[in-house]
Design a protein that fits this description.
alpha/beta, Rossmann fold, 5 domains, seven-stranded mixed β-sheet, six-stranded parallel β-sheet, globular
Length: 689
Amino acid sequence: MEPDDVLAGLDPEQREVAQAVRGPVCVLAGAGTGKTRAITHRIAHAVRSGVVDAQSVLAVTFTTRAAGELRQRLRQLGTPGVQARTFHAAALRQLTYFWPRVIGGDPPRVIESKLPLLIDACRSIRKNPDRSELRDIASEIEWAKVTQVGPEDYAEAARKAGRTPPVPAEEVFRLYDAYETLRRDRHLVDFETILELTAAVMTEHREVAAQIRQQYRYFVVDEYQDVNPLQKLLLDTWLGGRDDLCVVGDPNQTIYSFTGATPRYLTGFSVEHPAAAVIKLVRDYRSTPQVVSLANRVLDKARTPHKLALIAQRPDGPEPVFAEYDDEPAEAEGVARAVKKLADGGVPTREIAVLFRVNAQSEVYEQAFAKAGIPYLLRGADRFFERPEVRQAVVLLRGAARSAADDDELAPTVHHILAGIGLTPEAPGGGKAREKWESLKALADLAEDLAAEGGDLPAFVAELERRASEQHAPPVEGVTLASLHAAKGLEWDAVFLVGVTDGMLPIIYAETPDQIEEERRLLYVGITRARAHLALSWALARSPGGRRSRRPSRFLDGLTGRPAERSRASSPAPKDRRAVAAPVSCRICAKTLVAAAEQKLGRCAGCPADYDEALLERLKAWRTGVAKETKVPTYVIFTDVTLQAIAERAPTSEQDLLAITGIGRVKLDRYGEAVFALCRAAQDQTEDA
C-alpha cells in the first residue's frame, strides 16, 4: 500500500487529518463523523510516508475494546506494529518492566476493585457503611486521586468542587487515608496509582524517561474530552516537552466530569499549543438527517462555544417519535410494543437499544420485555466473557482444539460442544435460561462466520481469546438496556430514550449551570446513538393511579412539535399514549408560551380572555361533587388553571379536550363526557339567549 492509497475514500476533512502527519494537531470530531477512520489513516499515512516508525507510535484511548478496534484497523491498513492501548494498560506495561530495575523486587499487584480493600479500611476505623454507600465512597476516592487530591485535602477540595459526598467529608478523609495505608502495606496498586507511579518513576529516574521517550515519539489520544488531570500528567511526562501529539475529541460529548474528566484540555489545546492545526469533522455518516437535526437542535440552546453542528450524509429516515404516558409501566409496555413492531418489520433486536438516565430505571423494562417475550441484554452487568456459560464454553473449546483432527469441521464441532452445555435448536421463553442460550448462540454464530472464511477450531479459540482480551463480545441477539453513560461510543439502528423528564434528565442532583449543561450533553449523546429510528418518551407518574406531576425534560422545550397525524403514522399511539402537541403559541397574540399555566390556558397571562363565567362556576361545582364522591382533593381531578382553560375553550370533542396541555387519555376517559355535557349545555344556553 502506497502512502496516497491510505488517503483513498476519505472525505476532505478526514483527508486533512490524515495529511497532518506532524503535531500538534487537534481534531474536533462530532458524533458519527468517522474520527477513528481519520486517526487510523493518519497513523498509517505517517508510517507509510516514512515520517515515523510504527513501533514509535503510541495511540491511547479509554477502553480496551476501543484500543482493540484501533489495532485491528491499523492491521488492515498494513501498519501492525503500532501500540494502541488504554492509559492504564500502557502505564502498567511500563511500570512492570522498569519496577525490578529501579525499585527492586516484584511489581505490586493490581486490584480490579476498591471495595474489598475499602471494607477492610472500614473495619480499621470501626465504620460500617452499606454496599451502595461503599461504592459511592470508592467513587469519591477515585475522583480525589485523579484530581491529585490527597486524603488530608479531600474535604476542602470537595467543598470547592461542589461535591456532595455520600458520608460526611471527615469520614471520607478517614476511609481514604486508611485505604491508602492498607494498599501500600499490602503492596497493591489501583488504576489511579498505576498512572501516578509511572509518572513518578519517569520523573525521578531520568534513564527510564529517556528509554520510554526514545521508544515512543508519536502520540495520538482519542476521546480527549474525557482526560482527567492525572492522565494529563502522565501524557505530559511521556511527551517530555515534545509536541508530536494528535488529540481527538468532541466537547459535546463531555459527560464524565463527575469522575474528574475535563474538556478544558481539548478546548484549550490551541492555547497550550499555539502552532496547533485545528480540524473539525462535522459530516455525520451514522444517523439520518432527522436524527441529526434533533441532535443539533438540542445543542442550539447550550451554553458552549463549541457546538459542532453536524451535517447529515445519510438519506432521509423516519421522524423521531415523542410519546407521553400516564405512568412508568405504561411507558415500558408502550416501548415493548414499539420494539416488537420494529423486530417484526425486520430490525434485529441486537440493533435496538433502550437507554435511560440511571440503572434503577431498567427494572420496569426488564419486566415488560419478559412479559412480551422480547430477549434483552442488560449492559453494565457481567461482561460477556466473564459469564459462567461463556467461560465454561471457552474451556471446553480450548480442550477440543488441542485434540482436534485436521478434518474436523469448525461449525458442527462447536455446535456439538455447545449443545452439551445448553444450546438448543429453539430459544427458551425468557429469563436466565434465555440469557444463557443467547450467549451460547452468539458463540455458535461466530464459529459459523469464521468457518465461512476457512477457519478451523484452533483459529476459533485464538479469536475468542483475542476478543476476550479486548472485551470485544460477539453480537448477542437481544435488545440492549443501558444507561446513557454506558451507551457512549456505541450505536444502534433504533434507540428508545425513556424517562425523559425533569428531575431525571436533567437529574434532580444537577443544580449548577455546568451540571445542567452536562445533562443536556447526555441527552445529545443518547440521540446520536441512533442510526435511523429514534423515540423519546416520558411518564407523568411513577405508578398507575399515582399523581401525574412530572413534566417532559426542559431540554425538549420547543422540539417535540409535529402534526399529530405524522406522529401516528410513524408509530401508532396505543390507548395510554398521546402524541405531543406542537410548541404552544398564544391564541390571541401568537407569542410562544413558556410558563406551564399559560400553555394550559393557551394564551399569555396578560392577554384578554373571553369565557362564560357561569360555565366556570358549574365546572367548579361539578369538580367539588366528584372530589367528595371519590374522596380525593379537587386538584387531582382538574386544577383551577385547567378548569379556566376548559371554560375559555368550551371543548365538545375528544380532540378539543386533549389539546389542553396536561389533559391525557386517562382524564379524558374518566371525566370527558361530563365536561362535554357541561360545555354543550352552556353553548345551548348561549344560543337560546
